[in-house]
């Protein structure tokens, strides 16, 4: 049975005071989490230790990094390595978010390197994929996302790929208030699972959690998460609103 995961992506938001307040609220909230339903908080790097501490009372609430570099260590000023993340007990890292791809020109090949080193340090990548509006309008989104998967993940063994969480994020629905319909989300998630099955077999594909990321809100979470191939969400702005995100987790 694959895990259901709701991952908060705080992006570059929040002061220390705000982070303290948010984490305290989530740690104390009545959340329906267990060994198969977990919540992950991808906080800005300076707050990783804080998040670890604040969430330590519940094993089903995990802190995550928003990014890592492709090298173990070295003269890469400003970057954060998986060696550093592992040393402070971080077990999840978001890789390939559309903003990293767009603003920092991260290629599929570069992301393959990041995936490799994360797995080498036993850190679970939450690997993001998804199409911009022009691709969606051209109705070539399935092939576009398949290429992202093939070029960043298909060098992995079946055992390795089974350790990855995938997050599908229609770029046209991030921060725009637009959301893919539940049918559109399901269609793409099913397509992703078919691509994985063609490479690794149906059993492996069936075990991989695929999250939806794109303006998830409390008002649409139940419907989106209810789709058979949607295993949770990667949530941006709504994860900074305590009551809203609690409802999303409990969905």
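^ Assign residues to that structure.
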């Amino acid at each position: 049975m694959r895990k259901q995961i709701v991952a908060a992506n705080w992006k570059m938001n929040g002061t220390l005071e705000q982070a303290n307040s948010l984490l305290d609220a989530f740690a104390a909230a009545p959340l329906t989490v267990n060994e198969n339903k977990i919540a992950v908080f991808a906080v800005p790097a300076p707050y990783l230790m804080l998040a670890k501490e604040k969430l330590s009372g519940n094993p089903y609430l995990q802190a995550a990094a928003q990014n890592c570099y492709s090298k173990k260590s070295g003269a890469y000023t400003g970057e954060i390595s998986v060696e550093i993340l592992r040393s402070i007990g971080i077990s999840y890292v978001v890789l390939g978010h559309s903003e990293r791809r767009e603003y920092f020109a991260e290629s599929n090949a570069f992301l393959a390197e990041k995936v490799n080193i994360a797995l080498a340090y036993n850190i679970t990548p939450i690997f993001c994929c998804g199409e911009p509006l022009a691709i969606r309008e051209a109705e070539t989104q399935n092939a576009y996302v398949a290429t992202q998967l093939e070029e960043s993940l298909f060098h992995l063994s079946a055992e390795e790929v089974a350790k990855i969480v995938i997050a599908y994020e229609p770029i046209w629905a991030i921060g725009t208030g637009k959301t893919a319909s539940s049918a559109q989300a399901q269609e793409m998630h099913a397509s992703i699972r078919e691509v994985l099955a063609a490479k690794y077999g149906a059993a492996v594909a069936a075990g991989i959690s695929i999250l939806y990321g794109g303006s998830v809100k409390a008002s649409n979470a139940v419907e989106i998460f209810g789709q058979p191939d949607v295993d949770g969400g990667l949530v941006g702005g709504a994860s900074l609103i305590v009551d809203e995100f609690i409802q999303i987790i409990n969905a």
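The chain has one domain: 4-250.
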